[in-house]
Amino acid sequence: MGRRILNDALRTMVNAERRGKATVELNPISTVISSFLNIMKHRGYIKDFQVYDPHRVGRITVQLQGRINDCKALTYRQDLKARDVEAFRLRTLPTHQWGYVVITTPDGVLDHEEAIRKNVGGQVLGYFH
User: Fold this and answer.
1) Residue 45 DSSP class
2) What pLDDT is stored for residue 98 in this prediction?
3) Could you give the residue ranges of the DSSP H alpha helices within 1-129?
């Protein structure tokens, strides 16, 4: 599985959202997945999530809100400089009004707005809208 863990988790959430489910269970888990979900929760795309037994295989239960249209992880971690973040967002997201690009930076996992505000670059994990 390796680098596809985040992609599988996000695709599971999108599929459950499209079927009208209220909750979804994700496993296996990683700290990157919980950081990604924390950003989604902060931006209002999911209600809440619970992490169970993080030291073993573990699982995460996510309460969906019905706002996720699409959510993808990039399996190739593309490097971005701080000045190129906005151009990447415009190129990647299908609309200019909403959606977020998630970037792993030296300051932690951030969305594109926080990365621009802190003037840091990093590697793109994925995006959601």
Assistant:
1) S
2) 86
3) 5-18, 31-42, 85-92, 112-118
